[in-house]
Amino acid sequence: MSSVEAPTTVESFRTEIRNWLRANLTGEFAALRGCGGPGREHEAFAERLAWERHMAAAGWTCVGWPVEYGGRGAPLEQQVAFHEEYALADAPARVNHIGEQLLGPTLIAFGTDAQRARFLPEIAAVRELWCQGYSEPDAGSDLANVRTRATFDEERGDWVVDGQKIWTSLALESQWCFVVARTEPGSVRHRGLSYLLVPLDQPGVDIRPITQLTGTSEFNEVFFDGARAPHVVGAPGDGWRVAMATLGFERGVSTLGQQVGFRRELETLMELARRNGAADDPLIRDRLARAWIGLETIRCNALRMLEGVAAGAPGPEASIGKIYWATWHRELGELAMDVCGAGGMIAAGAPYDLDDWQRLFLFSRADTLYAGSNEIQRNIIAERVLGLPKEAKA
């Protein structure tokens, strides 16, 4: 493809998805616009699932996957266009994000032919949903401290899993969980871990919702007591490498759509500040201007990161983007409360009915923790990007 042809091709693709969204976010799906964002994952879940299956039937899921695995094989620039147009249309938050953006690319890169044949069609058609079994009570940001264990059952040919995972998003709505477990007795840190695929509808799996500051509970803790895992992705004991690749895919192209949502939040907050007079305060006005500049920086970082995506998965440089957007979004929540003033302290209704700004403030407190805390991101940047000496271990 020549450089002259590329803009036309991308623009025609952008027009195609824009027109499809305009024609299909109507009727029974019209009310889903804006539903299900951070802190609101509980909203219209069944309807959003139906919407995503509608997308799948039209070939609009897994656009970046190779065609042989059920995707469109869209090049990087078209994937960017898809996620941006989806966000610009204010289409509902995706229910299949973890399967499509995390596990699917991981299976394409590390799975066997049998695993790809078994799971990828179900993800692409949104018939099976996935959750992530990484964090534990004593292994959150320090993921290498995993204690969940699994032993191989020679007679049955599967793994027996025992342990606990926490902060497992959407576990109650999912059919499967990819789990990092220690499979080599006596191993420590990154060694001896395996990446297992565990069905959740079986004896030995107990899912308990966790109520958050927002009053919602898409987070869960999951207990495994003799649960069975029929699949290991990659070689047993090589789970750390596979798990890190999954985290790399998490920082992929879809983050460009996230920036569109951030811009919408900032523009709406600026309009509120003009209406209620908060913008007359020079300190508020300065913070709004800094937020605008910060958002432009986030986009530049995201575009720079795409070089890693084009190579197969973002490298450690992706941590720069993560720490920047997480801190920016948390500060936007704080700024929103200052723009709202004292009224922002009062719930919109009983018993705990939050407005969008209150929910943004409360949920964004977690932005600097999930998907790798700021402290961990700084270590990655220092050690793996800048080449500084590794942090001393106690």
TrEMBL record:
Classify the source by domain of life. Answer: Bacteria
- Spell out the Pfam families in the cross-references: Acyl-CoA_dh_1, Acyl-CoA_dh_M, Acyl-CoA_dh_N
Keyword list, A-Z: FAD, Flavoprotein, Oxidoreductase
Its name, as the record gives it, is Acyl-CoA dehydrogenase
Q: Which residues form the Acyl-CoA oxidase/dehydrogenase middle domain?
A: 131-225
Q: Which organism is it from?
A: Streptomyces noursei (Streptomyces albulus)
Where does the record place the Acyl-CoA dehydrogenase/oxidase N-terminal domain?
A: 12-125
Cofactor or coenzyme needed:
FAD
Molecular function (GO) terms listed?
Answer: flavin adenine dinucleotide binding; oxidoreductase activity, acting on the CH-CH group of donors
Where does the Acyl-CoA dehydrogenase/oxidase C-terminal domain start and stop, copy by copy? Answer: 237-386
Q: Which family does it belong to?
A: Belongs to the acyl-CoA dehydrogenase family.
- Residue stretches in coiled coil: none
- Can you cite an annotated GO cellular component? plasma membrane
